[in-house]
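To whoever is covering the structure queue this week,

Two jobs came back overnight. Logging them here so there's a record in the thread.

Job A:
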Amino acid sequence: MKKLASSFLVVAAIALAGSSIGCSPTQRGAATGGAAGAGIGALVAGDGNRGTGALIGGAVGGLAGGAIGSNKEKKQMQQQQQYGQPAPGYYGPRY
């Protein structure tokens, strides 16, 4: 039973990380960090606490990944403004 739960957790983490295609860097970082954190939390936790470890690890990983992704997104916006490129999503004329 525990082996099945661990396998399900790994498959869910991979599916969550793969479903972040087309997301902003903040969203992608939060999803990837949450998936990695849940996996690591489940592995590090004791035998009877795998669910709790996955929950805590996923929350911490999601927050950390979101913060890193947000920082990356801000740097990209600053570079685009510095070099005069239009902001993403803007399709109007360049003045």
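Job B:
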Amino acid sequence: MELLIPADPEVRALAELSTMLPLHGFPSVTTAARSLGTKIPTQNPKPDVFGRLIASGGSGRDIVTDSPTLAIEGYSVKEQQARDLCALMLAIIEAAARAGSLGGATVYRSRTIALPQNLPNPLVPDHFRFTALISVDLRRVTA
């Protein structure tokens, strides 16, 4: 019997974002630079601009497809830049869904649940934070 394993949406989305953000005005926001990931950077002072993405639920769509929800966060010491980063991260994931591949995983569609919104993070008081939510339909992988 074939095992169908849920694809890791965080790994796939971060790979896509790390490749595309430098091409669209955010050259320092990558996983390699540790300014993009699933955690807020621990160094102090924090980078002036950084992004975070976490899987925050979702459900199975059918036997071979899952619909995880991704929370996107753009941080910056400049309010407009935080909003722009969050909006760009959302647009990159939407474009990947239209193209059919998110970080190398097969993706069938996306649904934006919440557009970028200003939501300050009290744990990072020196930065503005904008957040968005998107759901992507990812094909499971075989073992």
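Note for Job B: The chain has one domain: 4-142.

Please reply-all if you pick these up so we don't duplicate work.
Q.
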